[in-house]
Write a structure and sequence with these properties.
Layout lengths: L1 H15 L11 H5 L4 H10 L4 H7 L3 E2 L8 H21 L5 E12 L3 E14 L4 H5 L5 E14 L5 E4 L2 E3 L5 E3 L4
Parallel strand pairs: 1-5
Antiparallel strand pairs: 2-3, 3-4, 4-5, 6-7
Helix pairs in contact: 4-5
Length: 179
């Protein structure tokens, strides 16, 4: 009987964690040099509600032309994040679940490669206990939370994020939308 319960628990865990098994494994060396916008945004989403994510994000902040922030602007960014983080997080209506889409805009800034648009969606649900979810007694709605843009710097090939947006070489402005 105990073996049957353990098998059932294992099956439920495997079903609920299916996303873990729909991906590829890679060596640390490969991950350090992995050149994919999906991988870069996944790193951001890993600890999306932790201050360290945003402070370290200042090191990847870019100007509208695709250049990285200079040292003084990076320090100012880190100071702003540190002083405003708790208040901003308290005011933010965190979704129960979140997901994102990544799309190549086929635009470039003066000092960048292709710019990628990341639309971030939140799923807000009522009755989110596991028993309600399994019984399908949960009502959820999706809402776009924000839009980010990321690109590789043409000189260094390092990935970065637009703080306000990117001015493209053909005159289009890609504006960041914050929550």
């Amino acid at each position: 009987m105990l073996i049957k319960k353990n098998k059932l628990s294992l099956i439920v865990i495997l079903i609920l964690s299916g996303g873990m098994f729909n991906s590829n494994l890679m060596a640390v060396e490969e991950a350090e040099n992995y050149d994919s916008p999906n991988y870069e945004i996944l790193q951001l989403f890993t600890n999306v509600y932790e201050i360290e994510t945003y402070v370290s994000g200042c090191e990847r902040a870019m100007y509208k032309n695709g250049k990285f922030y200079n040292h003084s602007d990076m320090l100012e960014c880190k100071s702003r994040v540190t002083s405003n983080f708790d208040n901003e997080m308290d005011e933010f209506d965190k979704p129960n679940f979140k997901f994102f889409t990544v799309e190549n805009t086929h635009h470039r800034a003066e000092f960048s490669k292709h710019i990628y648009k990341i639309d971030i969606f939140g799923t807000y649900c009522e009755n989110i206990d596991l028993s309600d979810i399994l019984a399908r007694n949960t009502k959820c709605t999706n809402q776009k939370i924000s839009r980010l843009f990321m690109t590789q710097n043409a000189g260094s090939n390092d990935w970065g994020f637009a703080v306000d947006g990117f001015q493209t070489t053909n005159g289009k402005y890609l504006e960041v939308i914050r929550p």
